[in-house]
Amino acid sequence: MVASPEPKYMSPQEYLDWEEQQPIKYEYINGEVFAMTGGTLPHNAIAVNLTTAFKNYLRGGSCRVYMADAKVGVAEDGPFHYPDVVVTCDEVDRNARKVIYHPCLIAEVLSPSTESFDRGKKFQQYRRISTLREYVLINAEQITVECFRLNDRGVWELYTYTEGEEIHLTSVDFRCAIELFYEDVVFDSSES
Description:
The protein is of the alpha+beta class. Helices cover 21% and strands 32% of the residues. It has 5 helices and 14 strands. Mean pLDDT is 92; it is low at 1-5.
């Protein structure tokens, strides 16, 4: 994400109305808007793989999967983010047209420019969503997935998955080999 050159502070409703008229997406944090930047092809491939796997798995049930263009509101007054993949099983969200407010799972594909924000402030904001049970961070440069899962004591626990392991996302009871997330992903050979 990139901050706008001249910050203009808006109310949540001003942002929602204004953004509908924009040619690109903007996130909204504390009254300020931030332009969304494009990702790499591996980043996109991972998000497509995860979305496709969820869509096939969830088909016919009460849960829905969305990607990239689906806006998630932490609260009615924001902040508002565009996660790479989001799953909601909430009936209210099934009828939503513009914003998802009740996700059970959010996944972000990490990129060097946004990793610290995704791990820090964004996760801090997402934790305010009462329905959120899992926050998944997928590394786009190596086969590693981190899943932060809310336990029954209200504590977020970290589960790390690496090459050759099976991932279990309990919020939707989804299991797969980690390699499914990385299908058709070509890693930068200069990093090996």
